[in-house]
Amino acid sequence: MSAISSSLSRVGTIAGNTFLEAVRQRFFIALLVLAAGLLVSTEFLREFNFGASEVRFIADIGFGALVLFGSVLTITVTAQLFFAEIESRTALTLLAKPVRRGEFIVGKFLGVWLVVLIFCVIVTLLVCAVLATREAEILAADPDAGDALVSYGAVIAAAAVQWVKFGVLGAITLLLGSYSNTNLFSVATALLVLVICHLQYLARDVWERGGSAVAQVGAGLLGLLFPNFQLFNLADLVTAGEPFGAALIVRVTLYGLAYIAVFLALASFSFRRREI
Amino acid sequence: MSDAAESSGMFPFLRDRLVTVAVTLVVLTATGFVLRPLEATAWAEVRARGAGIDAAGLEGAVGQGVVAGLLGGFRALAADFLWLKANSNWEEMDLPATQTTIRAVTAIDPRQLYFWVNGARMIAYDMPVWRIERAGGPDAVPASVQARIDEEQARVALGLLADAQRFHADNPTLVIEVANIHLRRLGDVATAAQLYREAAELPGAPFYAARIHAELLRNLGRRHEALEWLVGVHPTLPRDVPEAMSGIVLARIHELEDELGVSAESRYNPVAR
Amino acid sequence: MSDAPQPAVEIRGLTKDFPLNLRGLRLRAVDDLTLEIPRGCVHGLLGPNGSGKSTTIKVLLGLLRRTRGTCRVLGCESDDPAVRARIGYLPESPDFHRFLTGRELVRYYARLCGVARAGREARAAEMLEWVGLTAAADRRIGSYSKGMLQRVGLAQALVHDPELVILDEPTAGVDPVGSADIVRLILKLKEAGKTVLVTSHLLAQAEDVCDRIAILNRGKLIAAGTVDQLVSRSGALSFVVEGMPPDAVGELRAWLDTRGWRLASAGPHRSRLDELFLERIRKSEEGA
């Protein structure tokens, strides 16, 4: 077996085991139930009788659930599974095998990313099901509303791009975990980074308008250090009825994959010096 | 373990951690730099369609706990829930609260035309009624005061719709909404007529915009203009689309020709065109 | 160039410090340790708690970084991950993923060590049988007793047929029967040509199973050599005599005196408590 295929085999083995451990986490099930509950609660929107706009509200709630619970799931499961391995000392026997630190990091990441994929698929299917049901009812009641209210292809594409963002978030959490000593610190810092990445474009705008040299340097650095998570919110375009093409999806995906690779490389670099 | 703990200075202990932090900062900065072209292209497209939020527009809304709404995916949701709150305030006829939440909703999520249009309607059509009721009702409040209230609220609504046009330039729905406020709340038929014409000439305009423009011209006594307009519009109307009402338009043309005494030879003949 | 085989482990001047605080204060866990472990023997690493045994092992496995010195394992640098494919390691009080069965766990580690897919299942089954866990192989690790955890730990350490096997306190917390089984397994490993490095607090057990011993205290090596070299008293011999009546001891002493030899002690020969225990347990189980 060549060195590369051996390495891939080890990464795949660790990823598979991490996945099995992650799906057993009660937290995963709890978040899935919460997301489903939130979607089912959109029934109450009927009281307001928004008509065709109700579909947009449902999509907003669905994507909101996906983003909120998906982000929390990614950060907590990544940190939990990383530190559990180290604190329970299963990492001792694992890293005493011919497993490189980078293979451990990448394997952990892939296992968690796969669990998050399952979560995204289930929530997206639920969103589509609720949308389809409501769309059919609205179109039957109001023929002037048109032929279709929802582009399901756009819904799925937007959800897929969110999954890529969760990958970046998971890789960031691993970098923080590889450096810090506790699960709690990693989770707290990752949540802070999540907020910064979502708001970095706003701060950039404000500071770039500021004018002072210090503010401009600060704005520039902020924009370079943190990835722009707003870029992944194609869901906003879906609910605004703005079509987007494959080129945009490809660009955003490439951007996300590049950051995943960089953060995983940094996590491996940080973890290589860690003593178990 | 050995009791012989020795001091060898701070640097060796911190060195590894500092190197890791330094490498991380350098690599991330370089990554941001390298990916900037890719990000900028995509961001320009996403932002142009309104994925971002205008920082200036948020200055009044931050205090209402909308920070969480800035976290993309959440902000549409935050706007939705605030809209529900606005409806709740509307049901209670709480003018200040309704107006404030409408402003907050449109600041958080300016891409949704629905919020601008319905918010403007609440301000222009419902709030004058509330104010008049609070002042004693239409029988107690002098007509001049009622007119002033109508005008004040209409101006507020028009201000909201003017802000909307920053995000929805050349949207016929918005122009029609402005036209209706001028027509129904301000009684300004001439401005409404002009606006309906502007709307009718925009891509995606509803067929009725052209018809209403003609009707308003007719109401203003500008029947020649109305006739000329309808004669220009009728050939463009699809015969097989009920909403286009090409038959109705043709009937209006003939009515105007009768009113204006147009000779038989000069009458509009759709078949010949 | 010498034809002698390379040692399994070569440690030269190994020092390992742990930082205590930001001011640079550190704790020296291993202090200038130099040690060689030849191939094919069972080598004990003994010492009180905190003497540096586990630290030394973790440095050998690349789990900790050495502060100074060199470590070579099976001819390669100890921090080369590739050499760990030839090492099997059982940590002290091992913990494993509780949701896996014994069989799944051994297969998991076999895969990580590069055991070929074709033989992986058979190899895992063989190891589980070797450690006596065939009956419990399909139960979850979470339901295993301490002794069973040690056994499955041994199985995962051996599944890839390593040349060097490192066992950190393999009998800690295990009852005497289980402990004796583990000792037998260690001797089987030696017969199979493996090099075994074992740490233990149980000195009697170490004396029985090890060929060579190194004793650490406070990070320093204070004794090293074969068991016989270390425990033999020079100039003295032991005999076990059967059938001699106790009152003949005086006659024996007198004879020895004529030769100028001194009878240092004489008394009833005692068998070992662990031997008695095991024999009685075996007999009661055979009787049942």
Written account of the structure:
The complex is a heterotrimer of chains A (276), B (273) and C (288). Chain A has 276 residues and is mainly α. Chain A has helices at residues 3-23, 26-40, 53-87, 90-95, 101-141, 152-179, 183-210, 213-225, 234-239, 246-271. Chain A is globular. With 273 residues, chain B is mainly alpha-helical. The model of chain B has no long low-confidence stretch (mean pLDDT 86). By secondary structure, chain C is α/β, with parallel strands linked by helices. Chain C has helices spanning 53-60, 102-112, 117-130, 146-158, 176-191, 203-209, 227-231, 249-258, 273-287, and strands spanning 9-19, 25-37, 42-46, 68-73, 76-77, 87-90, 164-168, 195-200, 212-217, 220-226. In chain C, a hairpin with a 5-residue loop joins strand 1 and strand 2. The radius of gyration of chain C is 23 Å and the shape is globular. In chain C, 39% of the residues are buried. Classes of the chains: A mainly alpha (276), B mainly alpha (273), C alpha/beta (288). The interface between A and B is large, with 55 and 44 residues.
Structural class computed from helices and strand pairing of chain B:
mainly alpha
Strand content of chain B: under 5%
Query: Can you count the beta strands of chain C?
Result: 10
State the end-to-end distance of chain B: 105 Å
Low-confidence stretches of chain C: none
Q: Treating each run of at least 4 consecutive H or I residues as one helix, how many helices of chain B? A: 10
Radius of gyration of chain B equals 30 Å
The unreliable regions of chain B are: none
> Assembly state here?
heterotrimer
Structural class of chain C: alpha/beta
Instruction: Give the CA-CA distance, first to last residue of chain C.
Output: 61 Å
The helix content of chain C, as a percent range, equals 25-40%
Strand arrangement, largest sheet of chain C? 6-7-8-3-9-10
List keywords for this structure.
heterotrimer; B: 273 residues; mainly alpha; 10 helices; C: alpha/beta; 6-stranded mixed β-sheet; 10 strands
Give the helices and strands, then pairings.
The complex is a heterotrimer of chains A (276), B (273) and C (288).
Chain A: H1 3-23, H2 26-40, H3 53-87, H4 90-95, H5 101-141, H6 152-179, H7 183-210, H8 213-225, H9 234-239, H10 246-271
Chain B: E1 6-7, H1 11-48, H2 74-91, H3 95-108, H4 113-134, H5 143-167, H6 172-184, H7 189-200, H8 207-219, H9 223-233, H10 246-260
Helix pairs in contact in B: 2-3, 3-4, 4-5, 4-6, 5-6, 6-7, 7-8, 8-9, 9-10
Chain C: E1 9-19, E2 25-37, E3 42-46, H1 53-60, E4 68-73, E5 76-77, E6 87-90, H2 102-112, H3 117-130, H4 146-158, E7 164-168, H5 176-191, E8 195-200, H6 203-209, E9 212-217, E10 220-226, H7 227-231, H8 249-258, H9 273-287
